[in-house]
Amino acid sequence: MPVTPPNKLKVGFVLARLFTLSAFALFVDTLRLGSDQLDRSGRVAADWEVLGSTRNLIPSSCGVQVSPTCRLIDPQHFDYIVVVGGLLDVEEPVDGETIDYLKKAAAAGVPLIGLCTGSFILAEAGLMKQHEACVSWLHVRAYQERFPGHPVRSDRIFNLDEKRGSCAGGSSAADMAASLVRRYIGEEAQRNALEVLQIDQPRPSLHVQPRRPFAEDFGDARVRATLINMEQNLESQLSIAELAAKVGLSTRQLQRLFMQKAGMSPAYAYKRVRLEHARLLITQTKTPIVQVALEVGCENPTHFSKLFKRVYGQTPSQARAAARIG
């Protein structure tokens, strides 16, 4: 029989309109399986509720609807409140009463977690300014544009501090929930949950997000994480020292690592990342070439054009014309 902790891990879920069903399901199922042994689904060591300002069904982005299990009860009843986001183009994904509830929870010191695009909802409510958000690489530029000055990253699968958490979504929802199961219930409970879910092992928060490959295929996780950090900071370029610190290395160590694993310096890799983004904008959007140059941190359009031609064998204008012909 499992040992029941003196206090259950209690989680409240706030589901946005058109929320991502898979992220919610993986998170809550990991709690369920960690709460009891042998898939018996007993709420022995954990409990959860789906919160709602009304009893109306909440539609997910795939069309499946979920019913709240209770009203917006005292947030201090929960160890965590998890906001499950979904499609970003939804107006008012949660209502004003729910936003007020999240603010009340934050004021009471209840940790809040943004799951999938739930971090956008928390940021819109003014609750992420002092906390680093972890979002999918698909959404990092949108987050930066909507919430300038808010710290954000997409080089890891989730982030959790004492008062806020955030998760890129998808399968990483199970990893984040598993970390809570391990912390509050135990390692055996975490292992039980993941085995039933057919997940080999938990991925730590620092695990690099799976994503579309770069032009060059690098196997070292620190190189990949640095390239993602470069991509997130195209216009306001980070120093090599800042990039190195983000992956726990000195400047010299990062330079040596890049030469060993990528065959180029971090500075040259940064230039290639910026140019790859520029080429994408030039060939797939109508963004003026002068604006493209500025977006990748090049204030001199003439210099940008020469640099682009040196790498790709044609000027930005020629690349755009060729893309239209094709």
List strands and helices in order, with pairings:
Layout: E1 9-15, H1 21-35, E2 46-51, E3 58-59, E4 65-66, E5 80-84, H2 96-107, E6 112-115, H3 118-124, E7 133-134, H4 140-146, E8 152-153, E9 158-160, E10 164-167, H5 172-184, H6 187-196, H7 221-232, H8 240-246, H9 251-261, H10 266-284, H11 289-295, H12 301-312, H13 316-325
Parallel strand pairs: 1-2, 1-5, 5-6, 6-10, 7-8
Antiparallel strand pairs: 3-4, 9-10
Please sum up the structure shown.
By secondary structure, the protein is α/β, with parallel strands linked by helices. Helix content is 44%, strand content 11%.
List keywords for this structure.
326 residues, alpha/beta, Rossmann fold, Arc Repressor Mutant, subunit A, 2 domains, 6-stranded mixed β-sheet, 13 helices, 44% helix, disordered N terminus
Structural commentary:
The chain has 2 domains: 9-196, 3-Layer(aba) Sandwich (Rossmann fold); 212-326, Homeodomain-like (Arc Repressor Mutant, subunit A), CATH 1.10.10. Helices cover 44% and strands 11% of the residues. The protein has 13 helices and 10 strands. A hairpin with a 3-residue loop joins strand 9 (158-160) and strand 10 (164-167). Helix 1 (21-35) runs parallel beside helix 5 (172-184), helix 5 packs antiparallel against helix 6 and helix 8 packs across helix 9 (251-261). The longest helix is centred in the last third of the chain and has 19 residues, at 266-284. The chain is globular, with a radius of gyration of 22 Å. The termini are far apart. 40% of the residues are buried. Residues 1-5 have low confidence and may be disordered.
